[in-house]
Amino acid sequence: METRWTLKYMDLSGKKHITPVSDSRVELTEKTEGGRHTLYVTAKEDLFVKSVRRARAHTCHSHTIYFLNGYQSWTDSFETRLPEGEKNIYFIPPTLVRKFALDRYGDARFYNYRVSVWHGYDVFYARGEDNFFLLNLNAKNCALVIEVRKMLKQLVLKSDFRYKPLLRGESLCVADYYEAASPEEGLEFFNRVYPYHAPEKLFGYTSWYHHYQNISEEILLRDLEGMDERFNLFQIDDGYQTFVGDWLSVNPAKFPRGLSPLVELAHRKGKMAGIWLAPLVAEKKSALFQDHPDYLARDEKGKPIRCGSNWSSFYALDLGKEEVRDYIRNCLQTYARMGFDFFKLDFLYACSVQPPAGVTRHEAASQAYAFLRECLPGKKILGCGALLFPAAGLFDYLRIGPDVSLQFDDAPYMRLMHRERISTRVTLQNTIYRSFLNGHLFGNDPDVFLLRDNDMKMSPEQRQALLTINALFGSVLLTSDTVSEYDEGKREKLRQALHLFYEAKNVSFERLGDSIRIFYELDGQKKTLVYHTKKGVLI
C-alpha cells in the first residue's frame, strides 16, 4: 500500500507545517512516467522547504538480500539480510565521540540511527522474495535516503532540504527517482542514465601504504627508479607538505629541491606524475588555519566546522568566499603547471559536514566538486572521501571504500569506530558491492593491494584475495610495494593479476551467506571464485 508524499515546511513566521496535499501556501505536483516519479513543490507565498517523505508497504522476508549504499566513499556499503544490522557510532561513549570527532566522517550527526532500521543513499535494491530497485535522479540537488523499517514492514523514501528558501511563485523538484520491479530491470535503466564509458585503466604506485608521512626525495626517487614499464602512474601521497592546508609549503628537509625532480623523472620513465591534496580542509597546526581564520567555514555559533581528528584535527574551508576559492585554485594550478598529470583529492566530504543554511549536502558537494573540476582542466582527478552521486561525471575515478589496513580488519578497538574506519575487510566488501558503479559514475578505485612480507599482518592468502578482487572489480590497481624487490612467486602473482585487470570480462557476483561467489570470463573461459568475507580469503 503506497501512501502520499508528506511535505514538511516552515512559513516566514517560523511556524512548521506538515501536509500530505497542497494547501494555502504550497502546491504539490506529482508526475509519473513509466517507473519514474517526480514531485514538485510550488510556493504560493515565501517559505522554507524542510523535507518530503513517502512510505510504502514492504514485506521484509528473512531471505531477501538488500543493498545499502553508504553516505560517502569510505562508508561501509553492503548487501545484508534481515537479522543483520548497521553500525551506530553513538554506542561508543559520547566523550570519545566528541574528543575524536568520530561522528563527522559520515552521517551520524544528521541521521537518526535506529536498531530496527537500515538506510542507504541514492541507489538501493532488494533481491529475492522482495525484488525491488530505486535510483535517485535528483542527486545533484538532494540525497534520496532509502530506509528499510523492519518492524513496521515499510520502505521509506526521504529528501531533506534543510529549510531551503522558496520564494512565492518558484517551483522546486523535491523528488525524482526511478522505481523498478527487480534489480535487473533497475540496473538496465541505471546503465541507460549513466552509459558505460570505459575509463583508462591505471596501474600505479602510491607512497602512502608503505611510508605513510615518512617520505623524502631520496625514498621516492628510489621507489620510482624501481618501477618497470608496466606502471603508468607514480603518485606522491600525504607527507610532502609542511601541514595539511599549506599545500605550497613543501617540507624543505624532506624535499630540498622541491617536487619537480620527481615529476621530471616520472615523465622520462613514461609515467604520469600524481599528487595528493585535501583541498577543502586545513589542519589546526597549519599556517592557513592560524593566519586566515576568516577562511574557515563556521557553524551557526561562529565556531570552525571540525571534520575529523586526523593530523592535528582538521576543519572545513568556506567555499562561499572568493578569496578561499582563489587560494584553492592557485594551489591546484601551481601543481598542474609543475607538470602533475593526476590529482588525488581527499577528504572531500568536508564541504557537506555542515553546508550553509538552505543548501543541501548534495548541493554543497556538487558545487564543490564542479569547482575542483574547473580548477584542473585536462587533468585526471581521483576523488576520495567524497559523496558518490554528486561526483558523477566530474571525477575520472573515485575511491569506493575505506583505506586498506596492514591487517585484515585492523586493531580490535578500531572496529568500534565510525563506519568510515580503516579496514581491508570493509573495503573489499565495498569493492565488490559497489562494482556496478564502475565505468558509469566514474572509474572505481578499490585502494591498494599489498603483497610484501615486511610491515604486514595480513596472511599471504588475504593479500592474494585483496590483489585478485581489486584486479577484477576496479579501474585502478595501485600498490605501495617496491615491486622490484618481489621474489619470483610474487612476480608471478602480479603478472596473473594484471592479466585479470586488463582482460577479464563479464565480472559479476552473488552473495552466499558469509561468502561471495565471483564469476568472470578470461581468455574465452568461464571462471568462478569464492571469497569468504570473514576470513578474507579465496576458497
Average pLDDT figure: 95
Shape descriptor reads globular
> Percentage of helical residues?
10-25%
Q: Main sheet: which strands, in order across? A: 23-22-21-20-16-15-14-25-24
Kindly report the CATH topology of the largest domain. TIM Barrel
Number of helices: 12
- Low-pLDDT residue intervals, each spanning 5 or more residues: none
Structural class: alpha/beta
Oligomer: single chain
CATH class call of the largest domain = Alpha Beta
CATH architecture of the largest domain: Alpha-Beta Barrel
Jot down its keywords.
2 domains, alpha/beta, nine-stranded parallel β-sheet, TIM Barrel, seven-stranded antiparallel β-sheet, 539 residues, 12 helices
Walk me through this protein's architecture.
This protein is α/β, with parallel strands linked by helices and 539 residues long. 22% of the residues lie in helices and 29% in strands. The radius of gyration is 23 Å and the shape is globular.
SSE arrangement:
Blueprint (H helix, E strand, L loop, with lengths): L5 E6 L4 E4 L6 E8 L2 E8 L3 E11 L7 E4 L9 E3 L13 H7 L16 E5 L1 E5 L4 E5 L8 E5 L4 E13 L4 E10 L2 H11 L8 E5 L1 H4 L5 H9 L7 E4 L23 H9 L3 E6 L3 E3 L3 H5 L14 E3 L5 E3 L5 H17 L3 E4 L15 H15 L4 E4 L4 H4 L5 E3 L24 H10 L9 E3 L2 E2 L10 H14 L2 E4 L8 H16 L1 E8 L2 E8 L2 E8 L4 E2 L1
Parallel strand pairs: 14-15, 14-25, 15-16, 16-20, 20-21, 21-22, 22-23, 24-25
Antiparallel strand pairs: 1-2, 1-5, 3-4, 4-13, 5-12, 6-7, 6-9, 8-11, 9-10, 10-13, 11-12, 17-19, 18-19, 26-27, 27-28, 28-29
Helix pairs in contact: 4-5, 10-11, 11-12
